[in-house]
Recover the amino acids of this structure.
């Protein structure tokens, strides 16, 4: 009995170690490559684990010549503003769904669910034409159609969290003369703060990672976000793997920080209400 | 007790409704409309949705100005008085025809009468020029007949084509390939992710040590942008410097490292592997949450009754995990079916269309060839498939998905 249990523990450790290695290896290898000179990447040293002559050149090129920081800044602007307005709009909607009876509630929920299942490609053509007519191509207005991806998910997660808050608290508040908007801002949101925060993190990541809308609506490099800017690195310099590696290492840092700080919220957001992303 | 929302309460829903209406519903209706038209942005005759004939005023004015200018210059070459009168009559006709549209711009609707006036003008001018060019040598002999054709071109025929584009799509072998590639990619990658994800979730559920580390490590591939992951993998798969390609070659899986991204089968396998790497952890986390909801007492009771671990898995774990598995499968299947970023960056749909999925084909048609009409047909086929997939999964799940009370 005891030996079989020990064997099982050993098996588990091997599988877990193997899994961790597979998950981490690509990042590790990119990190190693980012310090190699292009001579080493293409020469005999291509598969060497420790760079023979480590260099910062890839990083300086990508930061100062290719200006990757511009894309990082754009991503921050776009993801942060999307998060702010989506949380605002989704909170109002989720409050109504969670707290009140109204006609067409199930239609609304069905609609929200259906929108989250749309292929995004279906909106790009008409939205492109709309933005062309309004003169909004190559601008930060791209955050508005981002709502197609983030809003349904936001409403869905928030409803799950609002439903957990007991109705009794609001009832006593209403008796004390609180208006609906006061109940929402003074009672529900503070109590559901962890849930709201979770929704914000998930929305932020989804907006940060968005690709299709930015590449179609914002063709000017000045408005490229990280995913789009990164994809163009390959087109122009498909050979310069050192720079690609440095760029990948740099743009992974913000994501890494978010994951390290907020992993609990992310996991709870992913699993609450069974909503993707 | 829940209260009624009331009229003023609808203000809470309004922002969401507006955003969904403007950026989700309206575009879908527009896309459906596009499919009935031969709608190409780069062709001036087809760059709008024209149910009836239209009149391109800009082109007409421009043509009128040039013809007047050239014909007036050529007056010196016309010697016979009779012909001079004819030419002047035409010049006046052109001026008269242009008058009603002086303040108009762009593309406008016209009546049948107006249309026949313009056609008449076109034919009269053409006849006159043919007559003149037989008698005289004109300075603008070559350019004038070409210019006159623009009168005709300023009448834009309707580009409404009904269901023809759908008919074309049925026989389009690119769509067949794209649909097959999409289905292959979706089924294979989601199947692998489910098996690996479930295995991983079972292990994580038992693991005593390092759960936090595993969770952090699992979240990173999910959290980084797909485009970044794709670029990273394109380096690992690269024929000359890619360590994974080198590793596969040494294992004997491929005969030379270039084959991984440059052969048709290799490219599909690479794409699937990259997707499995990125999303298996996500699948595992979803299933792990489901596993943790299963009460431990059920397993204890089963083991007292003498049931084996394997039996416990099939009689307790799987049935109770059913809805978690279905939800995870639904989201993963839809994501895989809509796959765009990963393939766009990793292979661009190549080599030779071997990894071209529906999204990639739609994108290339719409934004590469600016053929919004046919591109929308491709998107509608995708939309239909996604709808079918969703309906099947929602049916399997039962109705509890919409129960949010």
């Amino acid at each position: 009995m005891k030996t079989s249990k020990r064997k099982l523990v050993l098996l588990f450790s091997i599988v877990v170690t193997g899994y961790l290695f597979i998950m981490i290896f690509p990042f590790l290898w990119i990190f190693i490559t980012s310090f190699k000179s292009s001579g080493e990447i293409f020469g005999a040293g291509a598969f060497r684990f420790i760079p023979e002559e480590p260099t910062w050149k890839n990083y300086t090129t990508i930061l100062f010549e290719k200006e990757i920081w511009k894309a990082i800044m754009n991503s921050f602007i776009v993801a942060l503003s999307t998060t702010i307005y989506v949380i605002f709009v989704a909170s109002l909607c989720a409050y109504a769904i969670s707290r009140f009876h109204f006609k067409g509630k199930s239609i609304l929920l069905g609609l929200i669910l259906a929108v989250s299942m749309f292929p995004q490609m279906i909106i790009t053509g008409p939205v492109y034409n709309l933005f062309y007519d309004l003169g909004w191509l190559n601008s930060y207005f791209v955050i508005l159609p981002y709502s197609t991806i983030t809003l349904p998910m936001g409403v869905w997660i928030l409803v799950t969290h609002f439903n957990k808050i007991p109705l009794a608290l609001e009832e006593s508040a209403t008796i004390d003369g609180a208006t609906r908007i006061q109940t929402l801002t003074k009672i529900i949101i503070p109590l559901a703060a962890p849930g709201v925060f979770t929704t914000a993190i998930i929305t932020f990541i989804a907006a940060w990672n968005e690709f299709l809308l930015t590449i179609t609506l914002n063709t000017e490099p000045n408005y490229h976000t990280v995913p789009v800017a990164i994809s163009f690195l390959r087109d122009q310099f498909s050979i310069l793997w050192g720079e690609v590696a440095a760029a990948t290492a740099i743009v992974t840092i913000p994501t890494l920080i978010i994951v390290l700080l907020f992993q609990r919220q992310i996991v709870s957001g992913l699993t609450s209400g069974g909503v993707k992303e | 007790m829940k209260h009624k929302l009331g009229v003023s309460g609808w203000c809470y829903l309004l922002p969401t409704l507006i955003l969904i209406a403007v950026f989700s519903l309206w575009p879908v209706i527009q896309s459906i409309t596009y499919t009935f038209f031969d709608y190409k942005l780069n062709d001036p005759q087809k760059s709008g949705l024209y149910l009836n004939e239209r009149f391109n005023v800009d082109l007409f004015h421009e043509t009128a100005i040039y013809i007047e200018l050239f014909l007036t210059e050529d007056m010196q070459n016309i010697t016979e008085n009779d012909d001079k009168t004819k030419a002047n009559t035409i010049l006046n006709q052109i001026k008269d025809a242009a008058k009603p549209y002086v303040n108009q711009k762009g593309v406008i609707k016209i009546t049948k009468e107006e249309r026949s006036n313009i056609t008449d003008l076109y034919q009269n001018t053409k006849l006159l020029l043919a007559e003149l060019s037989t008698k005289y040598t004109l300075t603008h002999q070559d350019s004038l007949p070409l210019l006159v054709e623009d009168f005709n071109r300023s009448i834009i025929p309707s580009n409404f084509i009904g269901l023809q584009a759908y008919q074309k799509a049925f026989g389009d072998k690119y769509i067949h390939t794209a649909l097959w590639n999409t289905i292959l990619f979706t089924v294979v990658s989601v199947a692998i992710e489910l098996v690996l994800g479930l295995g991983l979730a079972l292990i994580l559920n038992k693991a005593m040590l390092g759960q936090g580390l595993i969770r952090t490590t699992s979240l990173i591939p999910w959290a980084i942008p797909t485009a970044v992951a794709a670029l990273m993998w394109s380096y690992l798969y690269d024929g000359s410097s890619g360590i994974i390609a080198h590793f596969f070659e040494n294992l004997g899986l491929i005969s030379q490292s270039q084959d991984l991204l440059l052969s048709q089968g290799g490219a599909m396998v690479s794409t699937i592997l990259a997707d499995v790497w990125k999303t298996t952890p996500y699948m595992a986390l979803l299933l792990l949450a489901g596993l943790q909801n299963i009460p431990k007492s059920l397993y204890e009771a089963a083991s007292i009754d003498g049931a084996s671990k394997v039996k416990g898995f099939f009689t307790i774990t799987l049935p109770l995990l059913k809805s978690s598995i279905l939800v995870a499968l639904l989201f993963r299947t839809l994501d895989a079916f809509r796959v765009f970023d990963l393939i766009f960056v990793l292979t661009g749909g190549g080599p030779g269309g071997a990894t071209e999925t529906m999204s990639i084909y739609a994108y290339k048609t719409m934004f590469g060839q600016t053929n919004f009409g046919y591109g929308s047909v491709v998107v509608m086929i995708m939309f239909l498939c996604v709808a079918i997939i969703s309906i099947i999964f929602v049916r399997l799940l039962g109705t509890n998905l919409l129960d949010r009370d």
